Amino acid sequence: MNRLPLFCDVASAQRIERVEAQLMTAAAEAACLRRADDGGFVMRVAGGVATFAEDGSPFNKIAGLGFDGVPDAAVLDGIERAFADRGAPVQAEVSELADPAVGALLTDRGYRLASFENVLGLALDPAYERVAPPGIEVRVCRDDEFEAWLDAVVEGFAHPDDQGIPSHEEFPRQVLANAERDFAAAGVVHYIAVCDGTVAGGGSLRTADGVAQLTGAATAPAYRRRGVQTALLSARLAAAAAAGCDIAVVTTQPGSKSQQNVQRRGFHLLYTRAVLVRQVRQAPDEVRVVQYDGAREKIRTLFELAEDSPTQLDSYIEDGRVLVALRGTDVVGHLQLVASDQTGTFEIKNMAVREDRRRTGVGRRLVHAAIDLVSRESGRCLLVATAAADIGNLRFYQRQGFRLRTIERDAFTSRTGYEPGTLIDGIELRDRVWLDHRLGGT
């Protein structure tokens, strides 16, 4: 193994940043395929790329700028509009070896420094020897081990070592689960560490253009200081060397335990990225989702858009919590979320969008807000039921990631408070379809 300190010139940084931009592109495209909608985007910009996967995703950023000229103002205008349309800030990660004019341009456009991150590298050669601390097994994660892998990694991220500069970002479990699945579709391989028969940690590896990208490494707090990270790092480096990579790179928070750990393994600081953020300027008609604490009767007309039986509506209108979509102070949509009798399972009981605001993304925002809320409360499953006759609703929920679960025959009858002969799109209202969204599951 070549242990000489690495020198990173502009060409080397450009190569690493190009690989990073390729990864963000592949991951965002995978997210679009997973969601089967047009909510995400990939936009090229001056040798870099702007990507958006979904609300709150770590793939929502601009990467790779500054090595192929200065971005055109009109192109940046389009990118910033695309992020604003999705209610997201614009985050640009710019290497210190990039063209300095890029940082000046972004600052002039209202971007502000949010944090830094360090990129460290290690020279690889085919003679790399794998280190295996006793009692720890590291292997490629199987599909049936993904949940255990995710649990360990999420727990590790949730309890960072109290050292260095804290990250300005924090992601719910469901967002991380989606991101890791999209990473896998983008060619990232997950590695699992098992200690005393228990999953103790995990990490990931992607190889491209001779660069090994080490991502997503974390150890559950109960297994720290036992060599888990050493084993994970060694296994991935050995795989990268065998794949013909000549350099491995890892990104850390400045002064963090993670940085200290990889430097002890021979990594050297190559360069620092500045993380520049431009916040969304909310337009007067921008829609936002908040929890509703008012009287339910004040928004009963919205509930009635989704419920044809007054008797049924009276029986549950006060249940659970309600999220509302606001345009200014005007309520344009709502979603009622209730807990089921199964631990970790919640149900979208009633949801509707005012007719004049349909097909504008309001429903999607409400559902995603509900998913985020349930994920933050460690929920594992979100249910929703809709009429089998309502083809539009079935299409909508499946496009948000829900899958068909069961069919409840003759759910809509006079016995349950529904007028016989009611038609939806020319189909008689009779049967109910249940769908579910596994949060972090299969």
Give an overview in words.
With 442 residues, this protein is an alpha+beta fold. It has helices spanning 10-35, 73-85, 100-108, 146-158, 173-185, 228-242, 257-264, 300-306, 310-316, 362-376, 391-399; strands at 41-45, 48-52, 61-63, 90-95, 112-123, 136-140, 189-195, 198-208, 211-219, 247-252, 268-278, 287-292, 321-327, 330-339, 345-353, 381-387, 403-408, 423-424, 427-428, 432-438. Strands 1-2-3-4-11-5-10-9-8-7-6 form an 11-stranded mixed sheet, sandwiched between helices. A 7-stranded mixed sheet has the order 12-13-14-15-16-20-17, with helices on both faces. Helix 1 packs across helix 5 (173-185).
Short précis:
The chain is an alpha+beta fold and 442 residues long.
Briefly note the structural class of the backbone: alpha+beta
Helix content estimate: 25-40%
Per DSSP, the total helix count is: 11
Q: For the largest sheet, list the strands in their spatial order.
A: 1-2-3-4-11-5-10-9-8-7-6
The overall pLDDT average reads: 90
Low-pLDDT segments, ≥5 res: none
Q: Ends: how far apart?
A: 40 Å
Number of strands: 20
Radius of gyration: 24 Å
Instruction: Please report which band the strand proportion falls in: under 5%, 5-15%, 15-25%, 25-35%, 35-45% or over 45%.
Output: 25-35%
Query: What would the principal axes of the Cα set say about the shape?
Result: globular
Biggest pleated-sheet summary: 11 strands, mixed
